[in-house]
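Q: Trace C-alpha cell order:
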Amino acid sequence: MSYYGNDGYGRRGIFSNVPPVTLNLIIINVFVYVITSLRPQEMTSLFALFYPKSPLFHWWQYLTYMFMHGGFWHLFFNMYSLLIFGRVLESVWGPKKYLLFYIVTGLGAALTHTGVEAIQSAVFMDRIAEGVAGAAQAYHQLLVTPTVGASGAIYGLLLGYAMLYPDSRLTLIFPPVTLTAKWFVLIFAGIELFTGVTGTAEGVAHFAHLGGMLFGVLLILYWKKKRRLYGNY
C-alpha cells in the first residue's frame, strides 16, 4: 500500500485529503448500497422514500432515502460529485455547517418531490372520480414507487459551489465541455425543469433536484444575511 502523508485528521493513505464528513458520507452510501444489494426488497420498503399516503411510508424515509441508490452508476456519479464539490465546501464551511447544508438540501429535495406527488395525486383522484380509465392504476403506481438517491443533496452542493465560486471552470466527462460553475448550474437547472415539466425522462425525480438547489439558495442567502456564510458556527 502506498501512503501520501498525513491530512491533519490523523488519517493517512489515498483518502488523506478528503475531509471527514465527505469521507464518511461516501462510506455510508457505499455501505448502504452493499446491504441493499443483498436485501433489496426489505431495504427499499423500509428506507426508500414513499408518498406519505402510501402504506409503505415511514417518517424516517425523508432522511434515509438520500443514502439509498438504484444502481452502481447512480451511486458512482453521485459519490464522484460528492467527492469533487463536497470536499471544497467542507473545507470552507467546516464539518458541522457543511453537514447541515447537505442534510437541508437533501430534505428540501424530498419535500419538493412530495409536493409534486401531492399535485399528481390530486389529479389522479379527480380522474378516478370522473371514471377515467387507468387513473386508479396510475394512483396506485404513485403509492408504491420508491424514491432513492443523494442527487437532491448533490445538486444542492453544486449550487453551493457555484454561488461561492461562480467563475471557476468545470469540465464535463461527457461531452468534454468546459464552462464556468454559474453556467453549469443554470444549464442543469434548465434541463431539470424542462424534463420535469415535459416528462421526457421518466424514472428521474427532476423536481427533487430542483428542490435541492432551491433550499441550497435559501440557506446560503440566509447565511449571507446573517453574515455567517464563511467559516464554522
